[in-house]
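Hi support team,

I've been running sequence recovery on a batch of backbones for a student project. Most finish fine, but this one hangs at about 90% for roughly twenty minutes before it completes. I'm not sure whether the input is malformed or the queue is just slow. I've pasted the structure tokens below so you can try to reproduce it. Let me know if you need the job ID as well.

Thanks,
M.K.
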């Protein structure tokens, strides 16, 4: 909408809700703020491995299901997040509306999420 280009639309989403995203794996916890302004979406928050095992690479945390927030068809985005506990880099990927981690996440390890992408809308 016209106003959306000037004033970003903000919402919050977690693994327990389905406002914009949906949880893909049990035991993977996330809490994000989503700010959409025009055709740009920014996602800021945290993710945590609440399972009893270290996650493998390509672990899916959430999928973008709302068409107004879906990623523009293009090459994948490669955001770099960092562990809240150790500060180490955790490589992530957003491709075809799926947010996943490239690097293993330790048991109960929390990492920061902060990336933006273009939408089709």
């Amino acid at each position: 909408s016209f106003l959306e280009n000037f004033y970003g639309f903000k919402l919050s989403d977690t693994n327990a809700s389905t406002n914009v995203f949906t949880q893909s794996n049990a035991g993977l916890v996330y809490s994000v703020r989503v700010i959409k302004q025009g055709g740009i979406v920014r996602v800021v928050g945290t993710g945590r491995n609440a399972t009893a095992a270290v996650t493998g690479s390509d672990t899916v945390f959430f999928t973008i299901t709302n068409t107004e927030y879906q990623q523009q068809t293009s090459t994948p985005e490669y955001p770099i997040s960092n562990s809240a506990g150790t500060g180490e880099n955790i490589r992530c990927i957003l491709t075809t509306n799926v947010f996943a981690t490239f690097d293993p996440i330790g048991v109960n390890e929390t990492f920061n999420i902060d990336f933006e992408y273009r939408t089709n809308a």
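--
Follow-up from support: It reproduced on our side and the slowdown came from queue contention, not your input. The mean pLDDT is 81. No action needed from you.
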